Amino acid sequence: MPPTTPGPAPDTTAAPVGRRERKKAATRKAIADAALRLFLERGYDAVGIREIADAADVSTTTLFKHFPVKEALVFDEDDDQEERLLAAVRERPAGTSVPAALREHALTSRLVTPNGDDRLTAFLNLVATTPALRDYGQNMWLRHTTALAHAIAEESGRPADDPTCRALAHFALEAPRAAHGHPDPRAAITSAFDLLERGWGALAG
After folding, report:
1. pTM for the whole thing?
2. Which of 32, 198, 43, 48 is CA-nearest to residue 130?
């Protein structure tokens, strides 16, 4: 009904939308939790989509609305991921090179250590021993290549389509792969970025 007193009409959509979003988030979490529990119990390849849907008490159609592929069930695709990545470049301390800023981002955001958490240890082992999950997780990061390349170009005064900026963006996002299976993942990532630093420094000089 229209308002009976002067002033703007009340927002009749805000509350229902909020409830819908909360319900969607709860459903998504229930599916992801069920999937991870089954994967940790039996292994990624041994669990089917229908089993996950049944465990979460949803249809397979609902499951695919939230997670378009099976691999996505394991990863929480953070909406802020790209924003933090670009901020690492744009908000880096004075005197810090772009590769150094990206190295710090990789070490703090992508080098996950269990720190005694048994469940996290099991999750990291699941990803490390499942090629499909390793590749999917890496490709999640690579989708930010174009945005990162543009940020690098802006910060270095180069054209937006500069191929060296795109190359640095690609290899910076790819570099953490060097840590897979390495006895000292932190050293492996640092070594990879040292190589990028030398190459970028030669171009910048």
Report:
1. 0.74
2. 43
- Per the listing, tokens 């699941």 go with 126
Tens of pLDDT along 165-179? 999 999 999 998 888
The dihedrals phi and psi of 30, each to the nearest 5 degrees, come to: -60, -40
Q: Taking the mean position of all CA atoms in its chain, how far away is CA 79?
A: 8
Q: How far apart are CA 124 and CA 111, in angstroms?
A: 11
In angstroms, rounded to a whole number, what is the distance separating the alpha carbons of residues 151 and 91?
11
In angstroms, rounded to a whole number, what is the distance separating the alpha carbons of residues 146 and 167?
10
Q: Round to whole Å and give the CA distance between 16 and 164.
A: 48
Contact between residue 89 and residue 151 where contact means Cβ atoms under 8 Å apart: yes
Cβ neighbours around 129 below 10 Å, total: 11
Which residue's entry shows tokens 């991921």? 81
Provide the token pair at 185: 């993942």
